[in-house]
Amino acid sequence: MQKTNPHTRFERYCDDIIVHCDTERQAQDLKVRINERMKECQLELHEGKTKIVYCKNVINRGANTNSAFDFLGYTFRPRVCKAKSGPMLLFVPCMSESSMKGVRTKVKDFGLTRFKGKVQELSQKLNPKIQGWMGYYCKFSKWATVKLWRWINLKLYRWVMKNKGLSKLRAIRWLQNVFKKEPNLFAHWQLCRP
Questions:
Q1: pTM here?
Q2: Contact 20, 8 (CB under 8 A)
């Protein structure tokens, strides 16, 4: 990039890279040149992951079927967002589905529903993980993570049902009472109350 395209903006993390282009033709040409350079280094582009994406937004309104990509746990795609002037189409990052699936797997592996102890002990065990996920995935478009926090609340309801021997409705009421007394007990309750 420094040799042949010093004015082209790009982001790189380990072996992943995003290159910003003004036109599709420029993107096609640059893809060929990057591929050639990779071969010089005895490397090759991953054909399944290498693609040209149209960043559709309020300025770029063209039609293109390929308008989303994943990078560092986020999905970048056009989304209608609230603005002072009204709804706007922006190309923004949100937590990717594969990242949500990964977090769910980690919560299942933690064994939340099998945890024995008090709710405060559970929060002490779970909060460092939740705070880490919130710190990373809520940096942009935190509203897109709400379904994940609701899912964790559902797991908490199931934990209460099993641990306290309560029906679903009573478990919900029990956890809501805990929230009234300790609204910051679980880190994600700041974004999605039980």
A1: 0.83
A2: yes
